[in-house]
Prior knowledge:
Layout lengths: L8 E3 L2 E4 L2 E3 L8 H10 L3 E8 H7 L5 H5 L8 E6 L3 H13 L5 E5 L4 H4 L11 H14 L6 E6 L6 H17 L3 E5 L13 H14 L7 E4 L5 H11 L3 E4 L8 H10 L10 H19 L1 H15 L6 H10 L3 H11 L5
Parallel strand pairs: 3-4, 3-10, 4-5, 5-6, 6-7, 7-8, 8-9, 9-10
Antiparallel strand pairs: 1-2
Amino acid sequence: MGEPLFPPLKIGSLTIGVPLLQAPLSGYSDAPMRRLARKFGASFALCEVFLDQFVLEVSKRSKSRFYLAVQDGDKPTGAQLMGSSSDEFVSAALRLVECGFELIDLNFACPVKKVVGKSRGGYLISDPERAIEIARRVRNALPGDVPVTVKMRKGYDESEKSRDAFWRLLDGLIDVGVDGVAVHGRTVLQRYQGVADWNFLRDVKERVAVKRNRPDLPVIGCGDLFSAETVVARMKASGVDGVALARGIIGNPWLFAQTRAALEGREIPPPPTLAEQKATIMEHFQAVLDLYGEKRGATIMRKFGVAYSKLHPDAEKLRMEFVLCKTAAGWFEILDKYYSDPN
């Protein structure tokens, strides 16, 4: 057994442990995926981003259990919230806490054009005063033992004006008492183009810890984390307190096991065998069927199947099989066909 490379992570009242989180992934990080992430090594998992209005409306419908249900086995878990009105942010945050979510993360980062166009997500980086007021209202409304964190990007664009707005926002968030910040090393306008700037993450951590004298306030790094070795290198170079894996773990929960081993100073396990892939996909699919039912579950699982297929030696053929599959029986036939023991 090796020695941990980094201290355990704590966010507000929550002791996370190994500083490895699953980021909120729109359209993906539902309850089955979050449970799988925890099983493979994520210390904490965030639900996919919720629009504040959606939370307030969906709670009145029977299907709300698909989105807002939190079981004891899901904990610790948090929910990410997006919107533009401080009143609706507060009401939705209170509703999510009632549902059992233990942390509320405010999304000031989403780069999707239609989101930004409605003054939500990444737009708020360009309006720091408004964003700070939202954070203040939410922090003051929630119980003190429920952490409030904020997801940001390095700015709206690469301009000096945008950079100044980022630092005003960060300082304001510290002043209103948020419990942590997660920063993606790209601007809003970059979306996912180019390379994430981890030097900027180092600057963020230095400002928080040194200039603001808050070394206890966790800074979570995000962006281009597709291997365990990369995670370790980025954490060492930037000084961040933890990382949130995002795109790299869609269809590859084994990345959590590999990364956790590296962070704990253990040998990194090898890629999964076909048998291991099959067992995990079946477990994931069964959890989806249990939650959504067969008809809806088979449709929802397609995007996961496409992602899982990337690890298969016959990826393109398998991908098309998953895309065309519409039934649970068809899914199990595909798994038997492509993941049978070659021996």
